[in-house]
């Protein structure tokens, strides 16, 4: 409860916000608004005074009620399904729009129209990014429970001889509400803080008793025009009373609580109550059975945590807000830096061959023709082959042991590259390096995706993937510094690059078993309650299976995953990253050197493009997670990359006169490249379940996607420099193909979500057992595929009960 409750005349509380707002009264993170008036004391008093006989009455109108004349919202579609092969068992299958019948308008439903601001000043994009702000699931913590004051305006109006057409824009002014209270031997002082105001306008009474001719007329009219309806006339007096009396919420039996269309926009109730105060509005409540009863006790509690036990749901409520955020931050700081460092080392070790080349490696080893390209390319052959097997091993062996083993092995191979004497030795080391590096990135992606819900994933992947961008910058800086050892102990500078960087990797691998986190259950720095919280949020988001049977490896699962259309389209998207990425990884130092810079300058000038690419990856991931939308943050960078390659190809005809433009093109290329793989990995991982399928799918995506690296390392041919028509042409073509596939994937996922939306989650869970849902994986309608996270803004009051006081 607010420390000091202000008078109506003190509104707005946020002076920078729209008229009448009460933002901040119950704290900056409030999610309940005027429901804060429903204190334990107020509800307890209502229960003691009004629950007498135990008689229960439903306030729900029939979900098939608005069928003729029909509103512009989907009515209930009810099908009876025989549970074959059982002969005497059936299920009900339901599909409907939540506003076709009795429902509460939540705080996401309506904004201040001119300002486009919802309750607490929140914007629509915040709702797409997270299921937390202004969601009606916050109401489920304690439900809507209290004393309901029933105001039967319709009975009073009929007693006064008023002619009422509830299907018209008939305005009910506040003074008539006051008169109705008097008619019921009550007055304004009869209401108290925490009351639920329930008004009967006669809308449903007239709807159900409508003459056939009028039904036919209105049904045709509603096909082209939004229905008019009776309702409260918005006014200063009405709002002042609701606020100063501390009414918790208000509802009625009309299609809209306020008259529609609303003409008094200065006092527009949907703006003032929903967006301004956070007061839920109830509509189409069936009140005919209560027409002569004034005080009720009403309870309504929507399920905020479907699929969880009552005990788990209650536990999750305790972690809402700051407590849960602290746990997530703890995971961020423990998990992501370690993965970022390892990925940094992996990219330095695979790409430093390019730095070694311009320090004289090719001359010392006698490389001729396309032998350098072969040595660069051969790395990706075992890298592709061993990615999927490595991730299968990862599911059988502790991640801390397996990934540390891989790091130590590739670090050892990297050190050995410092002593090779010929082309054959270089190729052998690159092959073995590919074997051991193959398992790291898909394993790291799988581990990260196993800790975070889907809408939080890309930003986290981008954080440690950004390390690959900084590896390019750091690799150039390290090469510049290490190469100064040229001749020390009789060893060439390029050899020192391999020796020192390999030794650092081995050292890192030795300490990794102490730092890498396998699963939340093994994290000693998480309390038992924190582990439970992490587990439950992963189950709610579909990342984890709720049953053991739903998450087992099988060869059938392996095959189905490898031919899954989402994975196959993702592979083409990955090619649009790997072709230009591999090409620039191994040829950027050479491209920059051809701009007229010295070897040392070229090493240093590789840094800014990689830094820009890393920043772009992080920003892209952050905004993609906020909006829970992947496609724009994949197609967008691809568009930037297209522009960059066009600039480079155009100006490469006359490099000497276009050095600044060429260098800007190189920077734009990295800005376009580095956001791609985190987005593609997150998008694919978001749409694969359970964890075995996600593990295999991500590994297969990255393995097959790296086929593009075989192409990328062989298209920028030395003999074609500095124009590189083959390199730029192939890159442009594959990027266009990738952008087209991203748009196709977005459309297919949208269609899939549209089909899934025909059933609510509650209906799905009633139809299928948890084992059946887990077996379906992401094909289950409970797991919404992820072009865009969406949430119903309105919730039907599934059950209500009232005790009648005679």
UniProtKB/TrEMBL annotation:
List, alphabetically, the Pfam families matched.
Cyclase, MFS_1
Q: Give the membrane topology.
A: Multi-pass membrane protein
Q: Where in the cell is it found?
A: Membrane
Going by the UniProt record, its keywords in alphabetical order are: Glycoprotein, Membrane, Transmembrane, Transmembrane helix, Transport
GO biological process: any one? L-tryptophan catabolic process to kynurenine
Q: What is this protein called?
A: Major facilitator superfamily (MFS) profile domain-containing protein
MF GO annotations: arylformamidase activity; transmembrane transporter activity
One of the record's GO cellular component terms: membrane
List the Gene3D superfamilies hit by this protein, alphabetically.
MFS general substrate transporter like domains, Putative cyclase
Which residue windows are transmembrane per the record? 368-388, 400-420, 432-452, 464-484, 496-517, 565-584, 604-621, 633-651, 663-684, 696-717, 729-750
**Segments forming domain Major facilitator superfamily (MFS) profile:** 335-756
InterPro entries from the entry? KFase/CYL, KFase_sf, MFS, MFS_dom, MFS_trans_sf
rRNA-binding found in the keyword field: no
Protein family according to the UniProt entry: Belongs to the Cyclase 1 superfamily.
